[in-house]
Amino acid sequence: MVETFGGLTGLQWALLGAAVAVIGGGSGSAMGITYIANVAGGILTEMPDRFGPLLPLVVIPGTQGIYGFITGVLVAFVMKPGAGWDALTGALGFQIFLACLPVAFVCFSSGVYQGLTAAGAAGMVAKRREEMGRALVLPALVETYAVLSLIVTILMFFVVIKPAYPG
Amino acid sequence: MPIARMQKVSVLAPVGVREELVDRLHRLGAVHLVELGSDGGTGDDPALGTVPFEPETRQLRLALARTEFILQLFERFGDAKTGLISGFLQEKVHLTLEEFLVAEREIDLPVVYRELEDLDIRIRQVEGEISRLEEELEVLEPWKNLDYPLAEAYGMEDVEFHLGVLPHQYLEDWDREMESRCPLSAWEAVERRAEKAYLAAVVHRENAAEFSSLASELELERVELHERELPVPDEISITRERLEAARKKRKELEERIRERFSLKPKLLALKEYLENLLQKEEVKGKFLHTRRTMALQGWVEEARAEEIRNELEEIGDPVDVEFDPPGEEDIAPTLLVNRRLIRPAETLINLFGLPNMSETDPTPFVAPFFILFFGMCLGDVGYGVILTLAFWLAMKKLDVSENARRFFRLFMYCGIATIFVGVFTRGYFGIEGDSLPGFLKFPGTVDVLNDPIPIMLVSAALGLIHISIGVAIEMYDNMRHNSIWVGFCEQGTTLLLWLGIAVMAVGAGVKVDAIQSAGMFIMIAGIAGVILLSNIGSKSLAGKFFGGLYNMYGLLASTIGDVASYLRLYALGLATVAIGSVVNRMAGMTWGIPVLGVVFLAVILLGGHAFNLAINFLSAFVHPLRLQYVEFFGKFYEDGGEPFAPLALRTNRVVIEDR
After folding, report:
1. Highest mean pLDDT range out of A73-87, B253-267, B376-390, B469-483?
2. Residues B173, B175, B176, B180, Cα dihedral to 10°
3. Which of A100, B285, B510, B637 has the greatest number of C-beta atoms within 10 Å?
4. Looking at the domain assignment, is residue B210 inside a domain?
5. Which residue of A has its CA nearest to B447?
6. Domain range for residue A17?
7. Domain for residue B322, yes or no?
8. Which residue has the higher pLDDT, B59 or B50?
């Protein structure tokens, strides 16, 4: 009989955490990229030569999805106990779930808002091509918080939860 | 000194040598001319009596506009490419300098222009005709069942002939009303499509007025084919034939334009040649003229001053050349001069904006850190090898501009850094640690996926070093411009504080209490320094203290924020590993499938790793750039430098081979 916490097994909690992180990061990125890609598409119909400088702006909000994905991969591959998933207690699984939450929430909101910021910066590139360097910096400021959430999630995994594994 | 020292050059010469002077300046390509005429020049000395001078550029502009028109025409009927890569790969024209300087003789522009302008006009006419005929066909098409001659139908004596389109739902009303109100008429629906009926009617004159009012009541959309004579099917086939003929005509005209494509290299050369002439002409507007003499002023690299003096004095006696160091109020343009090895990184500075002239050139610091950071964001030997080879080949084989080549070189260095970092992070196409051969796991290497702490600490430490260099540069500038003491107080104390933190961290790492407590003392000294000295500029004692306290608070917050920001290096490196290992696992799942398994395996591996490399390549460019621009430049950098742009031979798509 596998030990449960709040009615769910450790594996179930862990999967729930991984899923929430991937869903949050992925949706945030998808929404952010949609927004900036629409704006970039509009600019490109008028100025096809702006593709090069616009592309980095379009992909910037994609990192949040990757952070969510990393969290999912870490849960699936790395957080698996040496003795198999059955060895993961419900309480530990719940901790994994909690550790996934920073990425799930922050990557969602920062992905969306980074797309909005990038759209503003795309206007800069449209008006003056040589502003590309500065235009890249503005949306990258939003990214900081996504990075911080990923760092905290990873620290919780490796510094707090994993050392407490049985055996 | 990687920002070139500038000298101000002033030249006084007789008007008669103006052309030769400009020629020589253009050939030298070393003098950044400044506008002398803008303030009227002689406001305070009316005796000097300047002569207004307008450069004669009309002819040049006309010729240039014609060349550009032809090139655009070629582009319209050729294969215009716009895109990230093809933008770099615009075809180049290779010429010797001698060939370039006679570009004007190589082509008879007025003749070629007249021919192509004529072709353009005719093509536009034909295109107009094509769209007119297409519209006519569209109008005729629904009436194709009307197979009696229209001339006869319209020409009947007592009977009027009408065509019109009616929405289906009014058809019953139409039938009823026609019968009661226009008894001397007949009608027929010759075609029904898309909710509409196409009606043909013959109406006796007596009923004509009633028919008109009925038509407008039921919103009959009238169609007039008065100018047609034959039965509609015949009219349709005649129109089709005309359309075919017009299309053929267009094809022929297009073909004739294409025949002229061979002139493109000559036209490109001519265009850039004319642009240079125009530039030489326009620059004369910056000079100051009196009736007999002219004066010009500009900036030159100190190192080339003598060369310029010799070249200009060769013109003859009356040319007076003088060099002065920049004065207090002068703002010299900025020219970065770096060693060949780090020069590619200048492109990154240009992306942000050049430093102003009193600033330190950041290129020597940006270059190694950008390249290392890029390597950390990818951190995979396999991808590094691919990047290095790809950009090395691109640099060697592709016919691209000098600027593009510098970018390629920069990315080649980044590829080498990626290999270097990959060895330490055991990144080999994202293959997981357990499957790697043992000799790759020598001490000092880490498994990023399973053991993230060491690489995080390395990222943070590099970050602290990086921002320390930024503050140190600001301290150096401060010491140069103010005094050593002020530099120490305002920036040195921050460095002391960070040094203390670093020493403590090292002490904790190697578990030596002595080092740890030494770090503690340095840090306390730094904190005291920041609080007591950092606001040395304030006048009152209270201002110094509370300002310092405020600085301390700001410093704590910003240090944590800045250093945490460098952890993105770890996060992005992890992204490469994570995506790569998932690709490998997915590919591994296909192994069991008989026969087709190998195909799936190859497709997933190739596609997956190409995707991983592409997406992380972009991140690895954007994020290290942000670390340079925000965290590093934020500590010291002031942009606003005007780029050094001398009057010189400038080409874009023409490559002058012997220069």
Report:
1. B376-390
2. 130
3. A100
4. yes
5. A78
6. 8-162
7. no
8. B59
By C-alpha distance, the chain A residue nearest B571 is A147
Is the Cβ of A60 closer than 8 Å to some Cβ of chain B?
A: yes
Residue B74 — very low, low, confident or very high, per pLDDT cuts 50/70/90? confident
CB contact under 8 A, A136 and B625: yes
Residue B613: band (very low, low, confident or very high) from pLDDT cuts 50, 70, 90: very high
Query: CA B105 from chain center: how many Å?
Result: 34
pLDDT at B93 over 90: no
Tell me: ipTM over 0.85.
no
Confidence of residue B316 (pLDDT cuts 50, 70, 90): confident
Tokens for B636, please give them. Answer: 């010291």
Comparing C-alpha atoms, which of B573, B569, B602, B574 is closest to residue B587?
B602
> Is B202 in CB contact (< 8 Å) with chain A?
no
Q: Do A63 and B575 touch (CB under 8 A)?
A: yes
Q: Look at residue B640 and tell me whether its pLDDT is greater than 70.
A: yes
* Residue-range definition of the domain harbouring residue B206: 148-230
B residues 234-253 lying closer than 8 A (beta carbon) to A: none
Q: Which two tokens stand for residue B143?
A: 């009436």
- B348: closest chain A residue by CA: A133
Cβ contact A159–B453 (<8 Å): yes
Question: Measured between alpha carbons, how far is B538 from B416 in angstroms, rounded to an integer?
Answer: 49
Give the residue from B200, B230, B260 where a domain finishes: B230
Q: What is the 3-state secondary structure (H, E, C) of B550-579?
A: HHHHHHHHHHHHHHHHCCHHHHHHHHHHHH
d(CA B212, CA B202): 12
Cβ pair A151:B571 closer than 8 A: yes
Q: Mean pLDDT, chain B, as a whole number?
A: 86
Chain A contact probe: residue of B378, B618, B621, B632 with most A CBs at under 10 A: B618
pLDDT of residue B390: 95
Tokens for B409?
Answer: 């070189």
Contacts of A75 (CB under 8 A, 6+ apart): A14, A15, A17, A18, A21, A96, A100
List CB contacts (< 8 A) between B630 and chain A: 137, 140-141
Whether A69 has a pLDDT exceeding 60, the answer reads yes
pLDDT of residue B45: 53
Does B450 lie at the interface with A, CB-CB under 8 angstroms?
A: yes
Q: Which of B211, B230, B249 represents a domain boundary (last residue)?
A: B230
Could you give the CA distance from residue A156 to residue B271 in angstroms, rounded to a whole number? 63
Reply yes or no on whether the pLDDT at B560 is more than 60. Answer: yes
Domain holding B210: CATH number?
Answer: 3.30.70.100
Q: For residue B247, is it within any domain? A: no
pLDDT at B378: 93
Residue B262, min C-alpha distance to chain A (Å): 25
| Inter-chain touch B82–A70, beta carbons under 8 Å | no
**pLDDT single digits (tens) A83-100:** 888 889 999 999 999 999
Interface check for B615 against chain A (CB to CB < 8 A): the answer is yes
Residue of B352, B448, B631 to mutate when probing chain A, most A C-beta within 10 A: B352
Q: How many domains does chain B have?
A: 2
**How far apart, in whole angstroms, are the C-alpha atoms of residue B578 and residue B584?**
10
How confident is the model at residue B42, as a pLDDT? Answer: 46
| Chain A residues with beta carbon closer than 8 angstroms to that of B619 | 59, 62-63, 66
Question: Which pLDDT value is given to residue B43?
Answer: 47
User: How far B446 CA lies from chain A's nearest CA (Å)?
Assistant: 15
How much is the pLDDT for B3?
A: 83
Does the beta-carbon distance from A66 to B582 stay under 8 Å?
Answer: no
Comparing CB atoms, the residue among A49, A66, A132 nearest residue B575 is A66
Q: Taking 90 as the threshold, does the pLDDT of residue A46 lie above it?
A: no
Half-sphere exposure for B552 (CA within 13 Å, toward CB): 18
Q: How many domains does chain A have?
A: 1
B560 touches chain A (CB under 8 A): no
Q: Looking at the domain assignment, is residue A27 inside a domain? A: yes
B575 lies in a domain? yes
Cβ separation B582–A78 shorter than 8 A: no
